[in-house]
Amino acid sequence: MSELVVQGVGGGLAEVARRRYLLQLLVRKELRVRYRASLLGLGWSYVKPAVTFAVYFVGLGLVLRQNSIDDYAVYLFGGLVVVTAFSEALGNATRSVVANGELVRKVFLPRELFPVASVCVAGVHLLPQLLVLVVGALVAGWRPDLVGLLALLACVVLTGLLATGLGLLLSAVDVLFRDVENVVDLVLTVLVWTSPVLYPTHLVERLLGAGSWTFALYQHNPLTVAVDLVHRATWAGASPANLGRVPGDLAARTAIAFVVAAALVVLGQAVFRRLSGRFAQEL
């Protein structure tokens, strides 16, 4: 007698990897739907971050004179690129299962495809922003180095892992409790202030205390590590003075951040798999 299989429960992320063609179809669908009847299309990937950058740069860099950071434009835009990509990936991933309710009810396919596709779409939008960041850093005097390039790669992978793990977890819970969407929106609204995107780290150190547990928690926030990595990759290479301001413990914090991100992926997959059997009836 063959083993009974719970309907609606697939093989998890491994099944997504095996059905990459379905993932590609979902990503293309998301992009087509988002830019349908749009004049700029993918050009919005440049316009939105450019407007956000301009608002913060004028408000903080010019009006409030945030000039304690050399090459502030590169510093600011690098952090915004990371936070914007993470916010888009997590926000869309959280809503992904509910938004694809018709497919969930009518077609059997790995449900993990939906949050993973949302993360991939954010990755598509991230690429042109990284290109603009690299060009701006080169104009500011940045010269690529091996450590910096590895830091940039680590930043992208870490951000993707974080968004995937949290996206799996929150998208599953969102099917049962739609309040999750509103909570995520609130968190994402203040996210840009929870990492050294708009300000230097030493201001937080001065506020919380160098040896305090709150400052240690702030520094070991994986998203803070991702922002520090993009700063090491681009902003730090613009001048020797900037390189000297990169935290010396960044390598150790990066290793810890990857462990945390991997744990979130495992936890998110476990919760998603446990709840996925209820998706069709709840939707």
Quickly describe the structure.
The protein is mostly helical.
Question: Pairing-aware structural class of the strands and helices?
Answer: mainly alpha
The largest pleated sheet is described as:
none
Number of helices: 14
- Please trace the helix and strand order, writing H or E for each element: HHHHHHHHHHHHHH
Strand-residue proportion: under 5%
Pfam family, one: ABC2_membrane
Subcellular location: Cell inner membrane; Cell membrane
Family: Belongs to the ABC-2 integral membrane protein family.
Protein name: Transport permease protein
Structure description:
- The protein is mainly α.
- The longest helix has 31 residues, at 146-176.
- It has one domain (13-32, 41-282).
- Helix 7 (146-176) packs antiparallel against helix 11.
- The protein has 14 helices and no strands.
- The protein has helices spanning 13-18, 20-34, 44-63, 72-99, 101-106, 113-139, 146-176, 179-190, 201-208, 213-219, 222-233, 240-244, 250-275, 279-282.
- It starts with 12 loop residues before the first helix and ends with a helix.
